[in-house]
Amino acid sequence: MEKTVNILGFAGSLRKGSYNKALLRAALELVPKGAKLEIFDLEGIPPFNQDLENQPPQKVKEFKAKISAADAILIGTPEANYTLPGVLTNAMNWASRPYGDNAFDGKPVAVMGATIGTLGTARAQYHLRQSFVFLNMIAVNQPEVMISLAQEKIDKDGKVTDQKTREKIGELAQNLVAWTKRLKGA
Ligand SMILES: Cc1cc2nc3c(=O)[nH]c(=O)nc-3n(C[C@H](O)[C@H](O)[C@H](O)COP(=O)(O)O)c2cc1C
User: Fold this and answer.
1) Residue 92 Cα, ligand 1 centroid: separation in angstroms?
2) How many Å lie between the centroid of ligand 1 and the Cα of residue 55?
3) Which of 26, 92, 107, 138 has the greatest CB tally within 10 Å of its CB?
4) Residue closest to 107 by CA, chosen among 144, 143, 62, 75
5) What is the distance in A from the centroid of ligand 1 to the CA of 18?
6) Contact 108, 73 (CB under 8 A)
7) How high is the mean pLDDT of the chain?
8) 21-30, pLDDT tens digit by residue?
9) Which residue's CA is the nearest one to ligand 1's atom 1?
10) Three-class DSSP labels, 1-47
């Protein structure tokens, strides 16, 4: 029997009504058979302090342990002032430290993002992809899930109602799982 592909997902937003959290919740329903997605909430991760990187706060320890245990990573990112939201950068900084103990090392990763604007978080996603180079993460290139005008595609209860958006999320999850298996030689 094939081993389950365990995916850890997190969103770069702490907002209860976050559209990016909604994308991840939709992905819970759309991951292919043989894969499991767990969502980690970044709430409670304090601002990075390098003095503490060798004894990080409990929430950071949990985050790093979940990343290490996962076969693949799925990120839902908003865009803030044309780049990554601080919440996401901050959490990823913690998880990549101390030097030599980068929890993301070698992990396959897929990105999606939603914004109320019109460019679908494209700028933030390309900045994130730049970080993947240093983090040594192996990114899925396609499809690019860049959701603009999210308020028209996600309802008041945080459900992704737009069919095209759901299809893209499903396709991305499938490609992430296929990519992960390929890298593992499975
Ligand atoms: C400080 C701040 C900066 C923002 N900058 C951008 C931006 O550069 N591009 C964009 O498309 N939307 C921007 N927005 C709007 C976000 O897309 C919108 O707030 C979105 O809902 C945030 O994601 P969330 O729903 O997952 O919390 C910004 C919002 C805030 C609060």
Assistant:
1) 19
2) 32
3) 92
4) 75
5) 10
6) yes
7) 97
8) 999 999 999 9
9) 80
10) CCCCEEEEEEECCCCCCCHHHHHHHHHHHHCCCCEEEEEECCCCCCC
Q: Are 117 and 123 in contact (CB under 8 A)?
A: no
Which atom of ligand 1 is closest in space to residue 19's alpha carbon? 25
User: Which residues are paired to 83 by β-bridges?
Assistant: 80
Q: Kindly report, residue by residue over 55-97, the tens digit of the pLDDT.
A: 999 999 999 999 999 999 999 999 999 999 999 999 999 999 9
Count of C-beta atoms within a 10 Å radius of residue 90: 17
Question: Phi-psi category of 13—alpha, beta or left, where left has phi over 0 and alpha has psi -120 to 50?
Answer: beta
Helices 19-30 and 163-184: crossing angle, nearest 10°? 60
With b for 16 or more beta-carbon neighbours within 10 A and e for fewer, the 143-178 pattern comes to: bbbbbbebeebbeeeeebebeebbebbbebbbbbbe
Look at ligand 1, atom 23, and give the residue with the nearest C-alpha: 78
Protein residue with its CA nearest to atom 14 in ligand 1: 80
pTM exceeding 0.90: yes
Name the token pair of 141: 């290139």
Query: Residues lining ligand 1, judged by CB closer than 6 Å?
Result: 13, 15, 18-20, 78-82, 115-117, 119
